[in-house]
Amino acid sequence: MNDFFTYLSRNWDQLLELTYQHILMVILGLLLALLVGIPLGIMSARNERVASVILAFANIIQVFPSLALLAVLMIMFGLGFYTVVIGLFLYSLLPIIRNTYVGLKEVDESISQVGKGVGMTPFQLLYKVQFPLSLPFIIAGIRIAVVIAIGVATLAPFIGGEGLGREIYAGINLRDPNKIYAGAIVAAILAIIADFLLGKAESRFKTEK
């Protein structure tokens, strides 16, 4: 244990840089998933036939082994940072699409009818009534997506990416347990913090609802 803390004290700057790279990949992948996933979730809630196609496609991506998917993306887009971001974007889609769809479906129809009765347009009804009421579900989807993305991002070194995975796999190659523990523990802490903060946000919106 003393060796581990000694390793941390000597390499904290490198670990900080790898953590920054890890967080950046996750944030960019998540932002892309939000930009695409929320509109797809809204489309799904409006049309069940469309929903079956979109959700089936997102499910296929989700069940595809992460390393295999990253390998396919590497062939298509090459090695590097942006290929990892595309992979994280694809893995983050399903929980965001599904939870947006479920959240909008859970809005009481009588509330929507009241909005229509006071002359709201479909966009106003969505923006001012339905979307705010579905936020707890959407945040729950984001919460799941972030935790998944943090885990998948540790595979980034296999396709030329950076992040905490580089520390883990360097430790495996060098048979250095301190490197493995450092990368794995920091990644786990990131996932726990993200889950806790988004859980708090989800609870807050549920209370306001």
TrEMBL record:
Q: Which SUPFAM superfamilies match?
A: MetI-like
Mind telling me which residue stretches traverse the membrane in this protein?
Answer: 20-43, 50-73, 79-97, 135-160, 180-199
Give a Pfam family name: BPD_transp_1
Record protein name field? Osmotically activated L-carnitine/choline ABC transporter
User: Which UniProt keywords are present, listed alphabetically?
Assistant: Amino-acid transport, Membrane, Transmembrane, Transmembrane helix, Transport
GO CC annotations, alphabetized: plasma membrane
Source organism of the structure: Gracilibacillus boraciitolerans JCM 21714
Query: GO biological process annotations for this chain's record?
Result: amino acid transport; glycine betaine transport; transmembrane transport
